Amino acid sequence: MTASSTANQPHPRPPLPPTSGQAGPARSLTRFAWLSIAAAVITISMKMAAWKLTGSVGLLSDALESIVNLVAAVAALVALHVAEQEPDEDHAYGHGKAEYFASGLEGMLVVVAAATIVWAAIPRLFEPVGIESAGIGIAVSVVASLINLMVALRLFRAAKEYRSITLEADGKHLITDVWTSVGVVIGIGAVALTGWHRLDPIIALVVAANIVWTGYQLMRRSMLGLLDTAIPADELAVVNEILGRYRTTEGVETHALRTRQAASRRFVSLHVLVPNWWSVEHGHELAEHIEHDIRVALPGTTVFTHLEPIDDPSSWADEGLDGSGAASPDTGADGGERQSGRDSAHRALAAITGERIASLIPVRRPRQARA
Amino acid sequence: MPPQQSASRIVRLASAELASPVRKQAWIGIAAALGLTIAKFFAWRLTGSVGFYSDMLESLTVVAGAGIAVAAVRVAGRAPDARHAFGHAKAEYFASLIDAILIFVTTALILTSAIDRLRHPQAVQNGWYGVILALGSSIFSIYFARRLFTIARTERSISLEAEARHLVVSAIVSLGVVTGVVFTLLTGWQRLDPIIALVVGFTAGVTGIVILADSLQGLMDSQVDRGSLAAIERVLADDAATLGIVTLGVRTRAAGSEDFVEVTVAMPSAWTVDEARTAIARLERDLAALQPGRHVTVVLGAAASGEAPSPLSA
To answer: Strand B258-268 and strand B294-304: pairing?
Structure first.
């Protein structure tokens, strides 16, 4: 290192304020899972008590179904507890992914619940039966639904605040119970008004379809989360905006932007290309600033920067995941959104219909992820 | 589309499938497991033995598992895209997760039918035909599992390895059932058949738990195995000493047949980025050379004070 090259160093940067960078809230999220457990215990006891009083088998099966809520809430509790553990020897990136196990399970339970509704409704579609005397059963189930509704709304709020997919899934699970009860009440009302007994199973099937959709969405999102899916497009835009700022003001380049998520934690990794003659100290400082800005804009983000000299051709040829330069700048890991899926869909269509019809279907151009 | 064209398309697709050794093995695995299931189906229908019934169900989970493995290997092999910048290798864990769930369902079926038969015992008919069928299929299973193991090792595919392990368990289960039926035939003790079926059920359940635990661990961003980690640390120590840098930390996570290694280093603050690049490239090259399918990222964690000879001059 010669004196002249040190003289060329850019101006020193102001020191960074300390950032917490923590996604985790100060208090444990498990308190919301306990809330859900309490709600499940209360609704089960209510239905059990009503069953003891009336002897209605419907209430007993209703109580048994509520046990599923309890199981789900306990799963949420376990998942949240695991997810809050600090990174350790065996899990250097933390335990956030555990949240997806609970949300996936909730999705499955929701679909099973819908299946039992369909199972019960279809025979009644062909052989309508009169509705048993409603009375206390309906009253208990409406009160239980109100409890579930309140807890679900609280869970949704917490889920949004702390970006917890487990809490969101548990909330959605409780909401499906509410929908079921609403369906029952509407079904009874509609039959009473019209006298058409088939209306009750039809309404039940509509409710079931809605529930299946909820469960499917939950399972799908959990699966994608477990498969290292990128952060949502709007958050990616925030990152790109920050990087764009550095590109224009600092004369640096960035590429190979890769993101993934583990429930409330995001992971962002990128290459930062700086002038070859910059010192390591200066390059590192810049990288720290970029990391800091991303962390401030998206709390709970872990950022990895890989520093490279901008004038070295090999720096530009390592965008692929293997660092092999398999990817060209625009269609590589950070460019071609769902490109391969589209391509294969297009090819499959062309194989069936011929290229002329397939060519009418627009093929999305690779999105310019590098702004 | 004319029929011969669609036929040629199927042939083309099929030959593309068979071009990759892993996919080819996975398909052969499905065919073999299906054959075993059919053999056991006949053994069950012939004898009415609940042991053969549970054995057949167990083989059916092998078929399903192999089918899922084909899909998983296909997804895992996809190139990284914008939504999955780190590749799709984790799909293999997901496949084994589904596999585990299927095994649990089968376990429940086996256990309920075995308990039912235990309460209402029933004589086994045509026992010896069933014994021959089941014995033949389990010998075939073992031969086949050995082949799969070899391919799975060379191709580093956890789906194929899981399939092979599953086949071995299936073969052991068949042998157990055969032994049970033979004893029933010799002694005339009817309850032995459902008892063996219960054992089959528990074995299947344990397999399910093992597969489930493996896949959950993989999906949790777990550290690579101890041996690999030790090798990484050795290389890091060697390189750090030669290059005059300090390793601040290393994080790893396994993803199916691939893995990710992130190393944070400190370098002399006076080095230029050009010089740093040489050191980083050396580290990345050495770490990646330890294992195929490894993705290495070196992060500059801090600029250490102090002088060290430039790696460019070395």
So the answer is: parallel
Helix A165-194 × helix A57-83 angle, to 10°: 160
Q: Write down all domains in chain B, each with its CATH number in brackets.
A: 3-219 (1.20.1510.10), 226-304 (3.30.70.1350)
To the nearest 10 degrees (0 to 180), the angle between helices B21-47 and B3-19 is 100
Measured CA to CA, the distance from residue B252 to residue B228 in angstroms comes to 10
Name the strands in the sheet holding A265-274, side by side, starting at the edge strand that comes first in the sequence. Answer: A253-262, A265-274, A301-309
pLDDT, tens only, B236-292: 999 988 988 888 889 998 887 788 999 999 888 888 888 888 888 899 999 999 988
Residue A196 φ/ψ, nearest 5 degrees = -95, 110
H/E element, B260? strand B258-268
Neighbour count for residue A17 (Cβ, 10 Å): 7
The strand pairing partners of A266, in sequence order, are A261, A301
- What's the residue count for chain B? 314
Residues A184 and A237 in one domain: no
pLDDT tens across B82-109, in order? 788 888 888 888 888 888 888 888 888 8
| A281 reaches B (C-beta below 8 A) | yes
Strands, sheet with B258-268, edge to edge from the N-terminal-most edge strand: B246-255, B258-268, B294-304
Interface check A107 vs B, CB under 8 A: no
Nearest to B251 among A92, A333, A340 (CB): A92
Are B273 and A279 an interchain contact pair (Cβ–Cβ within 8 Å)? Answer: yes
